TrEMBL record:
Keywords: Cytoplasm
BP GO annotations: neurogenesis
Entry keyword Protease: no
Pfam families, sorted: BACK, BTB, PHR
The name this protein goes by in its record: BTB/POZ domain-containing protein 1
Low complexity bias locations: 23-44
Length: 631
């Protein structure tokens, strides 16, 4: 009787096999799922009979649901992913994403009412579907391997049943002993696992808060907000975590938690580049600064927009390290736009020291009128006014094209220059420079040309509408290079110039010479000093001063009216024509002298013999012992 009853029970249970329930639970959106035939239950064997084949292993008795597969490793954040797989605010997956219908826990810590992902038959236990972790474990008194028991612990389902005894269907000691395992994953399991889910227990491999936040940045784990960044069609969808953004930015805090907090799940940011927004998120999550020449300005804009001053400072420091004459004008415009006075000051200082190179760079013609005026107002530009005027004309031509004033005639150029034209210091030019350049440009009116010619030719000077304040293009500390090692007496003068040829390895500004004085006591000398360009024989600077000497072996300063720009690797001749009694002179001269200072670095002078009438001055001995200069 008992045997017949057992056989009837087994047949009744085989009519509704739990595998069929499990497979039915895998059907999503009314799409049919391939049904797996139920294997023969051990209880369907006749009592005392043995199966004809070797006893099947656990995998033959259990068919787990595909969505119970172990979750794969984290996927890198893809800013272009679709919206269907993004997590909700409470950490659960959205309704459109494939979720585990069994392991997903409710807020009370109980399991879903959906069918379990597996069922095992045991000849010594009643076949029933487990509803808790304890019931599941009590139905498996044999060993198998796999990580799925961890998923049940993760769901919180076992908390209410952890105290169950074996009589109640669950033995806590057995569960804790490590003898209970669940099936290994299979291709069927992996095939249906969502790709944006994190690996279970990833927290155990992250030993610091930074590592854990970096993991969250690199995956979509627990994200609860999305941003559509950039302008179409190049915009990207970027996911993030409200909490992390809120503790790093007051702007995000107000956006998510303020009185007017947004309820949108997708926030559009069309004015920010995706790369810059990613750099902002990386910094908020990990404190890492990832910027480059192509993204630093957009990242600086983004950091300012979302009030992240630490990232702002990092961007400014990057710009300072990479500031050069080639990009000084471009960065100056941006620094003024972003209200970065320290960066703007550094840009202006670079322009002062390297004015010719900065004006020749492509970025100069792209600046706005206000920035141009800021530069022209400076008294420290290291360039001749005629060259500055030529550069301003190039800017005016480019501005005409930007304003569609075509062709860029002189009238149109004067129109776009407007107030900047009055900042050109035409009186600082020589009459030759003005006559050959500015007077013929057509930008100046006839009245202005006549006014300036009168200024150049008559005394006293008439009042004019242009500034005549010299530009002090000298920065740093005055420096002096000496070329002699010893001083001798009696060097005579007969109206012939003392001349020495020299060359430097970097640009400098010569402001004067140091000359020896009389051997006969205090005396006054009249002197003409010049610097001549060797190849063109052009006089770069000259003056006719006088100087008083005291009869000692000291040198005495004679200065040019304006600093003379000396270009690197170019030969010049220093000339001095003295009228007065015999003087001291130098001997044991040096052909190569390297002058070094803390503030300006090294400047190397090379002295060579100047052919022609030189009053006997050479590399070895003679006059002009010192050159006074600035860098």
């Amino acid at each position: 009787m008992d045997g017949d009853k057992n056989r009837k029970d087994g047949q009744a249970k085989n009519k509704q096999c739990p595998y069929q329930k499990c497979n039915a639970s895998q059907t999503t959106n009314n799409q049919p799922t391939n049904q797996t035939p139920s294997p023969q239950s051990p209880e369907s064997y006749a009592e005392g009979s043995q199966p004809s084949s070797p006893s099947p292993d656990f995998g033959q008795h259990v068919l787990p649901c595909s969505d119970m597969s172990p979750q794969p490793g984290p996927t890198l954040r893809d800013h272009r992913h679709s919206l269907s797989g993004i997590g909700t605010a409470n950490g659960a997956m959205s309704a459109t994403s494939p979720v585990n219908a069994v392991v997903k826990a409710s807020s009370t810590g109980t399991l879903s009412s959906a069918p379990p992902p597996f069922h095992a038959h045991n000849s010594k236990r009643e076949n029933k579907l487990p509803t808790t972790v304890g019931d599941c474990v009590s139905n498996f008194p044999f060993s198998c391997s796999g990580p799925l028991v961890s998923n049940f612990v993760r769901s919180g389902s076992c908390s209410a049943n952890a105290g169950k005894t074996a009589n109640g269907g669950f033995d806590a000691d057995l569960f804790a002993s490590g003898h209970i395992f669940f099936p290994q994953s299979s291709p069927l399991l992996a095939a249906s696992t969502p790709q944006n889910q994190a690996v279970y227990n990833w927290q155990a491999t992250k030993t610091s808060v930074k590592e854990r936040l970096t993991y969250l940045y690199n995956t979509d784990t627990m994200t609860d907000i999305q941003f559509k960044v950039g302008k179409p069609p190049a915009h990207q969808i970027i996911s993030a975590h409200k909490f992390i953004l809120s503790i790093g930015s007051a702007v995000f805090d107000a956006l998510f938690n303020g009185r007017l907090a947004t309820s949108d799940s997708i926030i559009e940011i069309p004015d920010v580049e995706p790369a810059a927004f990613s750099a902002l998120l990386r910094f908020l999550y990990t404190d890492d600064v990832q910027i480059g020449p192509e993204t630093v300005m957009t990242t600086l804009y983004t950091a300012k927009k979302y009030a992240v001053p630490a990232l702002e400072r990092a961007c400014v420091e990057f710009l300072k390290r990479n500031l050069s004459s080639d990009n000084a004008f471009m960065l100056l415009t941006q620094a003024r736009l972003f209200d970065e006075p320290q960066l703007a000051a550094l840009c202006l200082e670079t322009i002062d020291k390297n004015t010719s190179e900065a004006l020749a760079a492509d970025g100069f013609t792209d600046i706005d009128l206000d920035t141009l005026c800021v530069v022209l107002e400076r008294d420290t530009l290291g360039i001749r006014e005629c060259k500055l005027f030529s550069a301003v004309c190039r800017w005016a031509e480019a501005e005409c094209l930007r304003q569609n004033l075509i062709p860029p005639t002189s009238e149109n150029q004067r129109r776009v220059l407007s107030k900047a034209l009055r900042l050109i210091r035409f009186p600082l030019m020589t009459i030759e420079e003005f006559a050959m350049g500015s007077a013929q440009s057509g930008i100046l009116e006839d009245r202005e040309v006549v006014e300036l010619f009168l200024y150049f030719t008559v005394n006293p000077k008439p009042s004019i509408s242009f500034l005549d304040v010299p530009r002090c293009c000298l920065t740093g500390k005055e420096q002096v290079v000496s070329r002699f090692c010893q001083i001798e007496s009696r060097w005579g003068y007969s109206g012939t110039s003392d001349r020495i040829r020299f060359m430097v390895n970097r640009r400098i500004y010569v402001v004067g010479f140091g000359l020896y004085g009389s051997i006969h006591g205090p005396t006054e000398y009249s002197v003409n000093i010049q610097i001549i360009h060797m190849d063109s024989t052009k006089v770069m600077g000259s003056n006719d001063p006088t100087f008083q000497c005291d009869g000692t072996t000291s040198t005495f300063r004679v200065m040019f009216k304006e600093p003379v720009e000396i270009l690197p690797n170019t030969s010049y001749i220093a000339c001095a024509t003295l009228k007065g009694p015999d003087s001291y002179y130098g001997s044991k001269g040096l052909r190569k002298v390297t002058h070094e200072s803390v503030s300006s670095g090294k400047v190397t002078f090379q002295f060579t013999y100047a052919a022609g009438n030189n009053n006997g001055t050479s590399v070895e001995d003679g006059q002009i012992p010192e050159i006074i200069f600035y860098t």
